[in-house]
Every structure is written in structure tokens, then in C-alpha cells.
Sequence to fold (355 residues):
Amino acid sequence: MPGPVLITGGAGFVGSHVAEALLAGGRDVRILDVLHPAAHAGGDPFVPDGAELIRGDVRDPDTVRAAVSGISAVCHQAAMVGLGIDPADIAAYVSHNDLGTAVVLKALAEAGYGGRFVLAGSMVVYGEGRYRCAEHGTVRPGPRSVPDLEAGRFEPPCPRCGAPLAPELVTEDAPPDPRNVYAATKLHQEHLLSAFAREVGGVEIAILRYHNVYGERMPRDTPYAGVASIFRSALEAGQAPLVFEDGGQRRDFVEVRDVARANLLALDSDAGVQGVFNIASGEPRTVGEMAGALHTAAVAERPGLPAPEVTGRFRLGDVRHVIASPDRAREVLGFSARIGFSEGMTAFSSAPLRA
Fold:
């Protein structure tokens, strides 16, 4: 029998769903999780029945050496997520995300590991997505200016002529352009893994760039929560979801059970899975549409809930549009999302969240 699959961050939002799916398929699962208060603010952590839990920090060499002993595969989900709160977050993001990854890789090298390593990557490494100018073709807009944002000019213009741009699907070969601290650390994780695979040899790396994941056990309205759970928490409290900018930001919302299935495909595929994969639904929607879908589903159960409110507010770390091509994941991993936007948002409107 092969050894257990190690899931770092396996008591977290995505990691716990991956653990459940592996256990349901008869695999042994070992979870390494520090149970960080930003992700586990209250109550008992969710650890699926049958999983082995090591409570510890991916930055602690002794803990990690014990966690990698005898494993057959690694699913690296552990990370601090979100844009961060203020510049003081920088050291914590780099420590948890990059140093933690380096410690795991060092322990694997010492153990002579030669299995598969699946990384929970992120679409934030793309920065602004792909855009096309009618005159200049594919272009890369720079960061949006504060005066433009304050004036409600949210769409990035062509950097060459200032004309409006049309957003297009981003493919995995797009040049990275991280625009906040979290994004920079996620890109550095990818670089560390690529260097490790070249230098050590025999380790197959699959980087799954998640798009906007939502679903059951998502953290509640914390500074590190995703926009879907922030809107969901507002409705649960009887408040209007506050939509930033004009609500026209395009994203790809992908349900967590689909994301877990993508991890299993990357872990268990008999074919080579080396490289980067967009894990997306292929069904882009605007943030405003997402808020509206959650409200529609919630108001069916609780009439009278306030409708989403478009605020015009903005965050400098945000980008306007990131929508992805799911083609490579379908062709190589055999992954296509099964849970559609309407079905997923209806279920999420009443799904239990994590404190």
C-alpha cells in the first residue's frame, strides 16, 4: 500500500475538501495544519474522520520532517491568503507562504522524496488579466491610478493609446504580474518549486492556479475571507452586500468541490501532470452578478433581505478583470467544472461557513 498523502493546511477551506475526497477514494491522509487564528477563529477545526492530524507549523523543520515521513504524495495548501491588511503583513505573508514552502521542500530533499507535489497556486499571479486593444492588439495595462479610481474610471485603458480595452481569457503562459504582497508570495512559491524540481530531479510538480473558490466551510467575514463569503456573511446578518467599484469586475467563481476534484486528478493521474493549470469554471461572471445571485437565493428563504449596494469604493491592490482559459486543465488533467454558477451560488447561500 502506498503511504499517506500529506495535505498541508488540510484542516482549512480547500484542504479539508481535498482530504474528504481522498478519504472517500480509499486513500490514507495525513494533515499538517497550524490552525492559524486568521483561518480558524473559533470552534473546533474540521478534520475529516479517518485523517491523521499533525498540529504544527510548516515553518518548523522538526515538525515537517515528521510529517513527510513515509508519504506517497504532497498536496500543499497551507498559506496565508488575501490581500493583507497593511504593510505590516508583509513579513508574515513571506514567512508562512515562502519560508514554509522552502522548509517543506528541504525536508523532502532530505527524505529522498520522489513523488508528486501539487501546489495550491492562485490566479493572483497574473495581476490584471489579458486585454486586447482594437488598434494595438494584446496589451498589458499598468496599475490603475488613484485619480481614475476616485473618478469612477475603473476600466484600465490601453497603455499605448488610452482607448478602451476588451478583457480576454488568460492562459497559463501569460507573463506573471503580481500586484500585491500575497500575489508576490504565491509566485515565489511557484519559482521555488520549479527550481526544486530541476535541482533534485524525480519530483513531478503540478501547480493549480485556483480562481475565485467558494463553497461550504469557507471562512466567514474576516480580512482574509474571499468576496463570496463576505457577501454571504452580510446577507446572513441581514445587511446589504457592499459591492466595490461598479460591480463590473469579471472573475471566475469555481466551487470548492470542483477544486478538490482537480487536486485528486493532479495527484492520481497516470499521465504526466508537470506544469501550471488554471482551475476555473470557464463561466466568467461579474462581482455584481455574484452578489445578485447570492441575494436572489437568500431572499427566497428570508424575504426582505436588502439588495446588494454598489459603493464605488475600491482597494488599490485589486485588479479589474481576471478570467481564465480552462483548456489545459481539461486536456491534461481531464478536469472540467461540474457545478454551474447558479447551482453553486444557490447552495452556497445557505451552506455552513467556518468561524
Remarks:
- The CA atoms of residues 156 and 162 lie 9 Å apart.
- The longest strand covers residues 116-122.
- Residues 90-110 form the longest helix (21 residues).
- The mean pLDDT is 93.
